[in-house]
Amino acid sequence: MSGGAAAAGSVSQAERVYTEIRDRLLAGELPAGERLVEVQLAAEYATSRTPVREALRRLEGDGHLVRDPAGGLRPRLPDVRTMQEVYDVRLALEELTARRASTGGDRELLEAVQHDWLALRAQWRTAPETLRTPDFVHRDESFHERIAGASGNATATRMLRATNERIRVLRIHDFTEDERIGATIAEHLEIIDLVLAGDADASAAFMRAHVQRSALVVRERVGETLARMFSAAPEALPPVAARAGGATRSE
User: Could you please report the per-residue DSSP string of 171-236?
Assistant: First the structure.
């Protein structure tokens, strides 16, 4: 095998391992406090330690794993306590930017957003498997940040982007079922239609309802995930796991 082919194979293996471990983490299938060991995972996924190491490094960067004092990686426990505070900030920003975009936003940018989400709706109807992934959260973030950008309020746009980065690891739970992906596409199109129609009150109200609905789904699914993680964990958790439930931040 040539060097290029070997590298491509390694990347493919790393992507496969990353996706499978991420899906298990989102489903709560890995026990709270369980240390992820490279050699064990390599055997489980029938690959070498190199793609496993790359996948774990990426999962840590995404916020799905946390490093303990000894240097080991364990599942990050979602911090539900701070989630509501961050969503309150997000609600205020989203309402502000939706209202501003409705009354004096960059129409060319807004029409581009509408065009892209009409295309996504068609894609969802014809090839749903291409969107059926937790990575849909990035498309969702882009929608909200583009409306904020079109509103002309650069400070609100930066704050919204920072807020999204803090809760992304939690919000991914919102896009693990077809129902939520389809509903999100439909709700986004309703919002952008109202923004383009210049209806500030309605666009702000629809945006608020959309974000609140997402928060409720995330809270419910994160709670279910935590329940599964702890039900699968041994009775006596390592000290780092016991602390994580109260100290882990949703960043």
Answer: HGGGGSSHHHHHHHHHHHHHHHHHHHTT-HHHHHHHHHHHHHHHHHHHHHHHHHHHHHHHHSS-SS
Supply 202's token pair: 């309605």
Domains observed in the chain: 3-76 (1.10.10.10), 80-219 (1.20.120.530)
Which tens digits make up the pLDDT trace of 82-119? 888 899 999 999 999 999 999 999 999 999 999 999 99
